[in-house]
Specification:
By secondary structure, this protein is mainly beta. Helix content is 4%, strand content 53%. The protein is elongated.
């Protein structure tokens, strides 16, 4: 070891590897830990820069945590580091912070030299001691691989590290963002419920070398989103092309599906089938715009837009109707006013109808085969 320390500059130049320590670029010698412990991915790090217990080391696109005391020699530092097994998020009243950690369901008994499984439903979590993690408290919740845990014990006896004893907890379907492993997220943030609708209908025709402009509506919890960022794609751009503003052009005879996706939430999407033709025949479709919710005893306005081959027309009208989605006869909401292309829907005031759905239908006045249905949920006043 003394030879390495005496020639550390040479070894770092010849054998050193690029790493990051707490986000800062450094160079170090990295070797596998030379002992019989094989349960963990442990390595020995040697470098000239000062390192501390708890430091996070990025090596070969993986995160490691220094878990041992530091062996300080004249020219170098040496320590043992262990691969971080996951990242966890702690939530402080809406302030969410992520931490690399070592999660263990087994511990090593130094006396017996064996691994011991912890009690069922319990885990140990080791995190770096820093100004954020020192605020972790008993009973604070977090997620590991879509399972919630609660902190039942905190050990700060080892400098640079915090060790948490944790037990399996219950999922909160109201507040937890289970998919993204964030506990209590919806206590402090609005749970987004995006919808995206192509307003030109489900299908349209376009002449060769002609253009249709697709109109898209995006809502979040029933409220229209201003200037949403949308990505458009064509299943066959050699037949029907589309640009990033939703302009569709007929290129060659045939058919393609145009898909619009919310750019930063690409599971929110809608599509329309476009056929390139030599001559146009009427192809009517209807869309309905308005809130997807109406509060008890209150009203919302809705507008029907009529399209012919994807282009909005204004010489047609619709007939309006409403029914309960569940088929019951006593209406949860009613149409209180309507014109040719607009309608006002008012929800009943009974709390028994809370979270029920009604279906608003607009039917083309001169062709009952062309209609559009729109689901509306009855919501609380609060």
């Amino acid at each position: 070891m003394n030879k390495i320390d005496d020639m550390i500059d040479f070894f770092l130049y010849e054998k050193g590897e690029s790493i990051k320590i707490n986000g800062t670029d450094e160079a170090a010698l990295i070797v596998d830990a030379a002992d019989k412990l094989t349960y963990y991915d442990d390595k020995i790090i040697r470098c000239k820069c000062q390192i501390r217990t708890g430091d996070i080391v990025e090596y070969n696109n993986l995160k490691y945590m220094i878990i041992s005391q530091i062996d300080r020699e004249e020219n170098s530092y040496r320590a043992r580091m262990r691969k971080c097994s996951c990242r966890i998020a702690f939530n402080w009243s809406g302030n969410i912070k992520w931490f690399d950690c070592i999660e263990e369901s087994k511990v090593f008994d130094i006396t017996s030299g064996n691994y011991i499984s912890v009690a069922s439903g319990n885990i140990y979590v080791t995190v770096q001691y820093n100004p954020d993690t020192r605020n972790i408290a008993l009973n604070q919740r977090f997620y590991v691989t879509n399972q919630p845990f609660k902190v039942t014990g905190i050990d700060k006896s080892q400098e640079g590290l915090i060790k948490l004893n944790c037990t399996l907890d219950a999922i909160s379907t109201t507040y937890d963002d289970v998919e993204n492993n964030i506990a209590d997220r919806w206590k402090y943030e609005t749970l987004h419920a995006y919808t995206l609708t192509i307003n030109n209908g489900d299908a349209a025709n376009v002449l060769i070398n002609d253009i249709i402009q697709l109109n898209v509506t995006v809502t979040d919890n029933g409220t229209a989103v201003t200037n949403p960022t949308v990505t458009f794609t064509s299943s066959d751009p050699n037949c029907v092309s589309v640009d990033n503003t939703g302009k569709v052009m007929g290129i060659a005879l045939g058919q393609a599906v145009i898909t619009a996706k919310l750019t930063y939430h690409d599971t929110v999407a809608d599509s329309i089938t476009i056929t390139t033709v030599e001559t146009l025949a009427h192809n009517y479709s209807i869309t309905i715009t308005g809130s997807s919710t109406v509060k008890l005893g209150q009203s919302q306005s809705y507008v029907a837009h009529i399209y012919d081959n994807g282009n909005e027309v204004f010489d047609k009208s619709v007939a309006w109707s409403i029914r309960n989605q569940d088929g019951t006869s006593t209406l949860y909401a009613s149409i209180t006013a309507s014109t040719g292309n607009s309608a006002t829907v008012k929800a009943a005031s009974s709390s028994a109808y809370l979270n029920k759905y009604v279906v608003l239908t607009a039917t083309l006045s001169d062709d009952s085969t062309v209609f559009k249905e729109f689901n509306i949920q009855i919501k609380s006043l609060f």
